[in-house]
C-alpha cells in the first residue's frame, strides 16, 4: 500500500453506509416491523414503515409508540453514521396528527449539532407531505467504532 493510500481519510458516505449495515444487522425490532432504510449518509438517515393493523390503537390510529420507535430508529442510524458507536441520551416527541392504518410513515433524521461525544438530531415523521410528529434526540458516543 502506498503512503498516499495509507493517509487517505475514509469516505464519509462509505462510513455511514457500512455503519448502518452493521447496526441494522442486529436490529430485530426494526426489521421485524418492516422498516426500510431509504437513505443514510453522514449525519442523516431516512427510514420508512407502513402502519399495519397490529400497530393501531383502540381509536384506529397508529399507536404513538410505533411512531416513536420509527423516529428513534432513524435517530440511531443518523447518530451512528460517522462510525462512532452512539446511544440515545435523551429524546422527546411531539405528536401533531394521527397516523392511520395503511399509512407509509417516513422518518427523516438530520444532525443539528455534533461535537466531541455529544450530538443533537431532529427527526420529522411524515405521511406524504404532512408532518405527523417531530422528534428531537440527544446522543452520546460510548466508545468503539462500527467501521
Rg (C-alpha, Å): 16 Å
Per CATH, the superfamily is Hotdog Thioesterase
Tell me the fraction of residues in β-strands, as a range. Answer: 35-45%
Helix content: 25-40%
Q: What is the helix tally?
A: 4
- SSE succession: HHHEEHEEEE
Distance between the termini: 19 Å
CATH fold call: Thiol Ester Dehydrase, Chain A
Please name the CATH architecture. Answer: Roll
Strand adjacency order, main sheet = 1-2-4-5-6-3
Number of domains: 1
Arithmetic mean of pLDDT = 95
Can you tell me the CATH class? Alpha Beta
Low-confidence stretches: none
Instruction: Outline the biggest β-sheet.
Output: 6 strands, antiparallel
- Which structural class do the helices and strands define? alpha+beta
Shape call = elongated
Number of strands: 6
Account of the 3D structure:
The chain has 147 residues and is of the alpha+beta class. It has one domain (3-145): Hotdog Thioesterase (Thiol Ester Dehydrase, Chain A), CATH 3.10.129. The chain is 26% helix and 43% strand. It has 4 helices and 6 strands. It has helices at 3-6, 12-24, 28-32, 64-79; strands spanning 36-41, 44-50, 84-95, 104-115, 118-127, 130-145. It has a 6-stranded antiparallel beta sheet with strand order 1-2-4-5-6-3. The longest helix has 16 residues, at 64-79.
